[in-house]
Design brief:
This protein is α/β, with parallel strands linked by helices. It has 2 domains: 108 residues; 229 residues, Rossmann fold (3-Layer(aba) Sandwich). Helix content is 41%, strand content 19%. A hairpin with a 2-residue loop joins strand 2 and strand 3. Helix 1 packs antiparallel against helix 2, helix 4 packs across helix 7 and helix 11 packs parallel to helix 12. The protein is globular. This is DUF2332 domain-containing protein. It comes from Chitinophaga caeni. It holds the Pfam family DUF2332.
Length: 349
């Protein structure tokens, strides 16, 4: 009973902090699931450390995308391409109970590996400025890369507040700025080496793996579906160096292998929240060790307690740590949300 109360609260928190204002469908469903012991029991099969609401919804979405024939599919905009703001809960529950074994298998074996490329709306301005200021070849390492789509930040087209600002691509990154100017994007003229690290790498050419990526996209966010499809078609994905890395020691090894003559940017977006307290401490200690032997930048985009308390924020915090001459400087660059569809940039001296 105690576990079910915990899961209930997770769905309520998911509704109020992540879905509200972003997904009407998942907001309503989350609050309804929170009151349903049978569905909470199915969702509880998720492996430890995984965000239960995300993976539960993804499992249902995956089965619908895979078959498409269920009555419930008629209420998913990702399948019908129609605007829908509510899914009949009785129909949703009926589908989940009918597919309970399949859903349990999915949530217990898969992990949440979102490739939210709209997060490039803040990555591109930050990375382009760093690369321009360094003025030399740069290596960029994405920790928790999944299929590596955010590493192709320099291959996309950027729109802010409905106006095209930079780039020319079939992949459109659209975002808004709230209470701050549109960020400046600098032309990238230096060579970039891209490395993606993950314990479970996603093969962009594998149909089932990319279907799971699509299932993780919220069904009423059609622009994200379009952008994901286009990003998966880019030939530049072949230029990313994918490396399996399962531990902090693996991360450290790959980081230390980078040529010191190159500028280095390491980043993690919505990854550290899945770490245990011990893993997070080990990760930050590793960054400090690397900072003792080379200069580099670490960009963290998280809603973890550490950052929220440090900057007295209740949003997702974008923090840049610069390691220079064995000295560490932390700066809060902006606040955003999980999808990067809005950003409030801070005045940084």
């Amino acid at each position: 009973m105690k576990d079910q109360e915990i899961h209930k609260q997770r769905f309520i928190n998911f509704a109020e902090t992540e879905c509200k204002g972003n997904s009407t469908l998942y907001y309503k469903l989350s609050l309804q699931i929170a009151k349903d012991p049978e569905l909470l029991d199915i969702a509880a099969a998720a492996r430890q450390g995984q965000p239960i609401p995300n993976i539960f919804f993804a499992a249902v979405h995956y089965l619908l995308l895979k078959t498409g024939g269920a009555e419930l599919a008629k209420y998913y905009p990702s399948i019908t391409q129609n605007d829908i703001d509510e899914i009949p809960f009785d129909l949703f529950k009926e589908f989940c109970l009918d597919k309970a074994n399949e859903i349990r298998k999915l949530v217990s074996s898969r992990i949440v590996q979102t490739n939210v490329i709209s997060r490039c709306s803040y990555l591109m301005p930050i990375f382009s400025e760093i690369i321009a200021s360094e003025g030399r070849p740069t290596t960029i390492i994405d920790i928790g890369t999944s299929a590596g789509l955010t590493l192709n930040f320099d291959k996309y087209e950027y729109w802010y507040n409905g106006i095209k600002v930079f780039g020319d691509s079939n992949v459109h990154i659209k975002s808004s700025t709230i209470g701050s100017p549109v960020p400046k994007i600098y032309p990238i003229t230096q060579p970039i080496r891209k490395i993606g690290l993950d314990q479970h790498l996603v093969n962009p050419s594998d149909k089932d793996e990319t279907l799971w990526l699509k299932a993780l996209v919220w069904p009423d966010q059609l622009e994200r579906f379009t952008a994901l499809d286009q990003a998966l078609k880019l030939d530049e994905l072949k230029n990313i160096n994918f490396r399996q890395a399962e531990s902090v020691m693996d991360f450290e090894r790959e980081i230390l292998n980078v040529d010191k003559k190159q500028a280095l940017i390491v980043y993690a977006t919505h990854v550290l929240y899945q770490f245990t307290h011990e893993q997070m401490n080990a990760f930050y200690a590793m960054l400090c060790r690397v900072g003792e032997v080379r200069d580099f930048y670490f960009l963290s985009v998280e809603g973890i307690k550490l950052l929220l308390e440090r900057y007295r924020s209740n949003k997702t915090v974008i923090e840049l740590t610069k390691f220079k001459d064995r000295h560490e400087t932390k700066t809060m660059l902006a606040e955003t949300n999980g999808h990067g569809n809005w950003t409030t940039w801070k005045d940084v001296e």
